[in-house]
Design brief:
Elements (H helix, E strand, L loop, with lengths): L9 E5 L4 H17 L2 E8 L12 H24 L5 E7 L2 H8 L5 E5 L14 H8 L4 E4 L10 E4 L7 H14 L3 E7 L3 H9 L4 H20 L7 E7 L2 H8 L5 E5 L13 H9 L4 E4 L3 H10 L1
Parallel strand pairs: 1-2, 1-4, 2-3, 4-5, 6-7, 6-9, 7-8, 9-10
Antiparallel strand pairs: 5-10
Helix pairs in contact: 1-2, 3-4, 5-7, 8-9
Length: 302
């Protein structure tokens, strides 16, 4: 079944020869099949150090032959996971993050593993995943090894920021496409001074929770009208948003979070919650932000 999420028809996956990347290939193949899209396996061969002498070209050939072996193994893995998906391959010398960023211009989704080798080394600590989430032209999914629970819910965080609309919209779309429920998590913790004032005037925390629940319901209802078939479970809790999102994502199909920033592609950064769930979430994490056209449309509607 073709899934109407986005208008592009290719899922790109980064490959570096690690087991984590092969897991990402398998997940991306299944996702491509679900969308009715093709799969593009992308590998960036590392450039040789400037001081390296390779007059015969043997070092470059060895690196390329290794890349070809990795790609062939990835194609086989994709075929086992999704036999009917068309597979494309791109191998290029250069930076993995720059190559994937260019690929994201024509992709519906870019998928990477949570741990890697070579160009993808240190991924979860802030290299490729963070770079892509801040500069990619499409959403990015970070996949752990064998962590998929396709029948599980989609989990999303709800906060008070106006730009959270696009994260909620995408979470509803993903839940609807998978035929599963949506778990919405809103975590809050008032400053200590506020807690003292509330106690002194007799404010009951349950009343504040009720007010928060009403706010969360208002935000969710705005999206639910467009996705009436999605069942939503809401959790309004105290404490760290990252902690509760990670907790709720146990057994989930997907955790959806936003990559925030300002000034278009320049100066984009990952928020602390997004960074924390990338490190600790047990399920695939979808990092999403609005396209430039969506930002303009939203501004015009305001």
């Amino acid at each position: 079944m073709t899934v109407p999420i986005g208008h592009r028809n290719v899922v790109v996956v980064g490959l570096d020869g690690s087991e984590s990347a092969r897991g990402a290939v398998r997940w991306a193949a299944v996702e491509a099949a679900r969308r009715g899209a093709s799969l593009r396996i992308v590998h960036a061969e590392p450039p040789l150090p400037v001081e390296a002498l390779d007059p015969s070209g043997s070092a470059r050939r060895a690196l390329h032959e290794e890349a070809v072996r990795w790609v062939q193994s990835a194609i086989a893995a994709a075929g086992e996971s999704a036999p009917d998906v068309g597979v494309q391959v791109r191998i290029e010398i250069g930076s993995a993050s720059r190559l994937l960023e260019r690929e994201s211009r024509s992709a519906a989704l870019v998928v990477v593993g949570s741990r890697g080798l070579g160009g993808f080394a240190g991924l979860v600590l802030g290299s490729v995943a963070v770079t892509l989430s801040c500069h990619a032209f499409c959403p990015v999914v970070v996949v752990r090894d064998d962590d998929s629970a396709p029948d599980g819910p989609v989990v999303v965080g709800v906060n008070g920021a106006p730009e959270n609309w696009y994260v909620l919209d995408r979470a509803f779309e993903e839940a609807e496409a998978r035929g599963t429920r949506l778990v919405a998590v809103h975590a809050w913790q008032p400053p200590l001074r506020t807690a003292r004032i509330a106690a002194s005037v007799g404010i009951v925390w349950s009343e504040l929770d009720t007010a928060r629940e009403a706010l969360v319901s208002q935000r969710l209802n705005a999206c639910a009208d467009r996705h009436p078939g999605v069942k939503v479970t809401t959790h309004v809790v105290h404490g760290s948003a990252a902690h509760h999102l990670v907790e709720q994502s146990e057994g989930a199909a997907l955790l959806v979070v936003g990559a925030r920033g300002s000034g278009g592609l320049a100066g984009m950064v990952l928020g602390s919650t997004s960074q924390a769930v990338l490190r600790h979430a047990p399920c695939p994490v979808l990092l999403v932000r609005p396209s430039l056209s969506e930002q303009i449309a939203r501004t015009q509607q305001a």
